[in-house]
Design brief:
Protein name: Protein BCP1
Region (Disordered): 199-219
Distance between the termini: 25 Å
Largest sheet: 9 strands, mixed
Strand content: 15-25%
CATH architecture: 3-Layer(aba) Sandwich
Number of domains: 1
GO cellular component, one term: nucleus
Family: Belongs to the BCP1 family.
CATH topology: Aminopeptidase
Function: Involved in nuclear export, actin cytoskeleton organization and vesicular transport.
Length: 286
């Protein structure tokens, strides 16, 4: 049974009059608990999309199993009914309770390795995910959030709202979800100076600007795949962008995006604030 249904109007330019005529397609997004019998392969694919070239070493099959083993915490989004593949997922896993599972063990080591260039971030993670940290009661929640690229960001406020409510219900039932911190993995991409210029397009020039040296875009600027990262970063104690360990160097002039990963560590107590911020930033289409 669906948790909630949301409609989204998707616009497409008309071939005859793209400037003034837009056709609207109503898409129903249904929110479901993770389904062990139908969602495994799709969740594994989403985890592979999130971690890209590093996915195999991070045991994403085990990550999918863990998500499906706690169906009352976490949400998937589907468009074609309960038995269809999920297009998005958001959930949280206790990295202390599951510290001996292959996926969590690998992700803890991965987070520590990737945070090494940032001494403050690395120190914080060492205190939380190192041997002493894992023996403490400072539970870290691993936030697994990923979606297909054409899914609108407007689904995320509701997914985070449901996650916060489910965490509270689990705490009320004495389940181990009383997190002190949330560790969020996400994805980013970089553009070259030429790609930046192409994205911006030619700027109009005044007579005064005619003989001026044109402003060059900054190469290597980082963009998030997920717009909500901007709001998560504002609440984060630490945030770091990193390169994938097994990524192949991008050839000059090659096609595709130069992608990387992002880690953000936020106090779990700020989750309600994040929910409120996202609801304000990304309201459902009217």
């Amino acid at each position: 049974m669906a948790k909630r249904k949301q409609q989204h109007a998707d616009g497409a330019d008309s071939d005859t009059d793209a400037a003034s005529d837009r056709s609207l397609v109503d898409v129903d997004f249904d929110f479901f608990d993770p389904r062990p019998d139908v969602d495994y392969l799709a969740l594994k694919r989403l985890a592979g999309q999130l971690f890209q070239a590093d996915a195999e070493a991070l045991h994403v099959h085990d990550l999918a199993d863990l998500v499906l083993a706690q169906p009352l915490v976490g949400t998937t989004v589907k468009c074609d009914g309960i038995d269809s593949d999920p297009y998005a997922v958001l959930t949280v896993l206790n990295m202390h309770v599951h510290q001996d599972r292959p996926a969590i063990k690998a992700l803890a080591q991965y987070a520590l390795a990737k945070s090494a260039p940032d001494a403050a971030f690395h120190g914080a993670l060492q205190n939380l995910l190192g041997p002493a940290g894992l023996a403490s009661q400072n539970y870290v929640g691993l936030v697994f959030s990923e979606r297909l690229i054409n899914m609108p960001v407007q689904i995320m406020p509701h997914m985070y709202r449901m996650l916060a409510a489910e965490i509270q219900l689990a705490i009320d039932d004495n389940e181990p979800y009383r997190f002190t911190h949330l560790l969020v993995f996400s994805r980013v991409y970089k553009l070259t100076a030429e790609e930046e210029a192409e994205l911006q397009g030619p700027a109009p020039r005044t007579k005064r600007q005619k003989h001026a040296v044109p402003t060059q875009p900054s190469p290597g600027r980082v963009y998030p795949f997920h717009p909500e990262d901007e709001h998560i970063q504002k609440l984060a104690l630490h945030s770091l962008d990193y390169t994938f360990t097994r990524a192949q160097p991008r050839e000059e002039g090659g096609v595709g995006l130069d992608t990387g990963g992002r880690m953000m560590l936020i106090p779990a107590a700020r989750l309600p604030e994040l929910v409120s911020t996202l609801l304000d930033a990304y309201p459902a289409p009217s």
